[in-house]
Structures are given as structure tokens and as C-alpha cells.
Amino acid sequence: MHTGSPKTREIEVNDALICDYVRTPIGRVNGSLAGIRTDDLGAIPIAALVERNPGVHPEAFDEVILGCANQAGEDNRNVARMSLLLASIPISVPGVTVNRLCGSGMDAVATAARLIKSGEANLVIAGGVESMTRAPFAVPKVPDGDSSEPARYDTSIGWRFVNPRFKAKFGTDPMPETAEIVAETHNVSRVDQDAFAFRSQVRAAAAERSGRLAAEITPVALTDDSGISKMVIRDEHPRDTSLEKLAALNTPFRSNGTITAGNASGINDGAAALLLASPAAARDFGLTAWARVIGSATAGVAPNVMGIGPIPATQKLCARLRVPQTEFDVVEVNEAFASQCLAVLRGLGFDDDDGRVNPNGGAIALGHPLGMSGARITGTAALELKLRGEGRALATMCVGVGQGIAIAMEAA
After folding, report:
1. Helix, strand, coil tally for the chain in percent (to 5)
2. Residue 200 to residue 167: CA distance in whole angstroms
3. Of 5, 57, 144, 168, which has the highest C-beta tally within 10 A?
């Protein structure tokens, strides 16, 4: 049972403060952001943070950390370093790219918070980027004298270069099949999944109408071959739908299954970044703290039920913090699939339609650029705390190959 918000406590010297957050609009696959290289895409929110915080001297950043799940194309060679330089951050500022698949952007924020709490950094940009549209095909090298046709893999999402020993031991179920397994083993019906997906669309539409989504989006300028420029200012993935339309969709991943294009996240492009600071740096550079990071945790589960990863990750985090699992005012659960979200919510003691969960819509409506999403849901939760002026927030994600990640915040 939810018993209310904690009182805002005084900021302490080793707190890791979230002071700003911004993201690009989220593009559909082959959509408006398809023409932007991944390293250029990652540079957009970094540059926006610098512009929005003119009191910060860019050379003062101790680190730029970006999450990215692919790293097989234009995001290779440390996309964080390339993006920060493309954003005109001084060459003296280092950058590192982290990969925990879908949890990469959240891991970047958690890593930044740990650096600040330990005293090893004072000012960090953390975020994530993914262009699933531009993810390349990969072809393995063929040994000399081998005339066989090499395999070709689409690196946008899922398994490639599979280890036969791993497959024999754990399987290599594609993501939609893992969602089907979770639906079956946790008794999550198609009706409940479609209802969850519809709520995501309704909440996202309301957040767009109210300007809540616009509050976290930096416009992206596009210029075509003729030199004509246009601005992308809105997310492309949300759809005007209904329960009837969702119920009519087929289940392409399993005969008589429950997973559809309407109750799953999409293939998307986007980037997000957060500004984290120590209390001393916030004071020195005139930053206003939105929230403090109070902890993070990760956990492992079987790869074929990767969607339930947020349950043990959140349980571990809440036990460490001595905070009840349902004692949060804002809860962001990444909507990889409605089936796994519902299994997670029920496993943690939340109602299916709890208004604290994804209050502005989630990835089913907004989209899921893999490396970006963890930064997006952490940032949007921090922004909710800023707008409310009190409370705690939880953000959590499932992760491919069987993991979960969670991060907790308090209003500053």
C-alpha cells in the first residue's frame, strides 16, 4: 500500500544530483531521424544540455557516458567520445560507451552517479543513443579456402554470431518469443496486454497535448538535398488506436500467441542525455537540482524470460535502500512488451492500471531506441519529481540475455 511521499531531506556533500535532462524526439524506423548518423544523433542532446546551462564551463565535465546497444556501425569506436566532440565539448573531456543492451542508458546514469558519490567526479553527462534504422548488416570473416557463403546478420536487434554451446545450454529465443514465454508462465492474457498498451497510448497522447512531452524534447533540424530545413519536434511512434483495433492484430510470433505489433515496443531512433553534478559543482555552476540518485541495482534471470528482470533488480535495490517496493510516487517501467510489464508490476505488487506507472506513456506508445531508453525513463522520472517538488521515483528495465536494472531517485 502506498503511504505517501517522503519529506525532502537536506542535500548532502556526496549526493549525485540530476540537474537537467533532454532528449530528441523518437523516430520510427526509416522515419524522420533515419538520415542522421548515430554519432551525430548522440551529439544533439549533449549540445542541448550545454546550451541550456550556460553557467557550466564545458571543460569542467569530468566524463561523458553514453549507453549504446549496437556499436556495429556508425556507433562503433566509442560513440560517446565521438558524440561529445561533435557536440563541441573540449577535447580534454573524456567519453566512454557502456553496453548493457536495453539497460545501457540507465547503466550510464548509474555509473555517473557512482562516480560522483565516490568523489571521483563532480560533473558528468550521462545518456544513451541508438539508431536502429541505421544499424548495419554484419558478415563474419570466412577462413581462407572456405567457399561457403557467409551468414549475414541484421544488427538492429536480437541474436547474431550465436555460440552453439550457449544455444544448447540456454537457447537463443528472439525477444518476442521471450515475451510469449513470460505471458504464458505468468498468466498474462492478451486482453490485459492490449488494455495496458491502450493505456500507454492514451497517456502519451495526453502528455503530448499538455506539453509535458515537449518539456523534455529538443527539436532536431533536418536539411534535405535542396537545402530546405525542417524541424522535428514530436515523437513519431504514438498511434491513434482503440481496444478494438489492438484486438484485431495478428500474433506473428506464435500460433495462438498474445504478442502483437500493438502491445510491443517498436524499432526506433533517438538519443537522450542527463546532467549530473555533485552539490559543490551544482553550486559553483548555478545548477538547480531536480532529483538525487539514491541507488541502483542489477540482477540476472534466465535468458528466455529476460522480461522479468526488473523484479529481482528492484527487489535488490529496495532491500538495500530499505524502501518498500510499492513506496514510490513515480514508477517508470520500460515497456518492451506489455506481457513482461504486467508480469513485473504484478510481481512487485502494483495494480495493472496504477496511475503512478508510466504516467506519460511508455515505450509501446513512444518507442524504444535500445541504448536511449534507460536514459529517457530515468530522465522523465526525474523531471516528474521536479514538477511535483517531492517524492521518490523508480525506473527499471528488462535486459536481453536475462538481466534487469533499476534506479531510484528522490526529489531534491
Report:
1. 35, 20, 45
2. 34
3. 5
**Among this protein's residues, is 341 annotated catalytic?**
no
User: For residue 282, which amino acid is it?
Assistant: A
Question: Quick check: 295 and 406 in contact, CB under 8 A?
Answer: no
Going along 308-378, which residue ranges are E strands? Answer: 330-333
φ, ψ of residue 20 in degrees (nearest 5): -170, 160
Q: What is residue 363's three-state secondary structure?
A: helix
Q: Give catalytic status of residue 57 as yes or no.
A: no
Catalytic residue among 19, 318, 341, 398: 398
Other beta carbons less than 10 A from residue 377's beta carbon: 29
User: Which pTM was predicted?
Assistant: 0.96
- Alpha-carbon distance of 230 to 277, in angstroms, equals 34
Cell of 263: 502491445
CB atoms within 10 A of CB 230: 12
Would you give per-residue pLDDT tens digits along the chain (412 residues)?
Answer: 344 455 467 788 899 999 999 999 999 999 999 999 999 999 999 999 999 999 999 999 999 999 999 999 999 999 999 999 999 999 999 999 999 999 999 999 999 999 999 999 999 999 999 999 999 999 998 887 777 788 899 999 999 999 999 999 999 999 999 999 999 999 999 999 999 999 999 999 999 999 999 999 999 999 877 777 899 999 999 999 999 999 999 999 999 999 999 999 999 999 999 999 999 999 999 999 999 999 999 999 999 999 999 999 999 999 999 999 999 999 999 999 999 999 999 999 999 999 999 999 999 999 999 999 999 999 999 999 999 999 999 999 999 999 999 999 999 9
Residue 68 annotated as catalytic = no
Distance CA(130)–CA(70), nearest Å, equals: 7
> Catalytic pick from 19, 68, 102, 318?
102
Q: Which of 68, 237, 318, 368 is catalytic?
A: 368
